[in-house]
Amino acid sequence: MEAVHDFFNLIYGQLVGYEYIGIVVMMAVESSFIPFPSEIVMIPAGIEIANNQMNFFLAVFYGTLGSWIGSTVNYLIARYYGRTFLEKYGRFVRIDLEKINKLDRYFINHGKITVFIVRFIPLVRQYISFPAGMAKMNFAQFSLYTCLGAGIWVFVLTYIGYSFGADYGAIFLNKQINFELMKELLSPQLNKLTLIALGILAVLTAIYYFFNKRFLVD
Questions:
Q1: 128 or 170: which leads in pLDDT
Q2: Which of 56, 73, 125, 209 has the maximal Cβ count within 10 Å?
Q3: Euclidean distance between the first and final Cα of the chain, in Å?
Q4: C-alpha dihedral over 133, 137, 139, 140, to 10 degrees?
């Protein structure tokens, strides 16, 4: 646990030094194939916002931009090299041509909503770009739904940090994080934020299915 705390504090120190550039770079890495939790980037950013060191909406924008950049790297790698790689080596992990074709068909029908929803699932969201790229999902649609999902997630995390508000001084002292106080302050916020995120997710999912049913032809 001490190592986790030290790593968190290291990231926070970098964020304090580089601000928006640090957010973009770290969120790009988080969304690439070398992931680490976005919580350790955007929650400290929210604390810095409470300290009047950054702008809330700019932090959300750059956090979303970083997520899109990292996801796009994965997407492009998979789009141009993924199928060839799996056709050659997929048999070693029991992935044959039939499964690859099934993946293509799935993303034709459900790619947009899948990319959007998976952005909320830890340990999975970083890798959804690979099947999307390999299936050659439309890049504009991929970018749109990646930014929508990542943007909501980044907003929630940033708000968590910002909601600490006047307590930032007790949480952050000499570039060290008081994790016990953070946990205590976070608990009453978590249920509210979870409900907000789930509500937004439900509304956007309903809109997606309505327009697909109303306007798209199978």
A1: 128
A2: 125
A3: 51
A4: -150
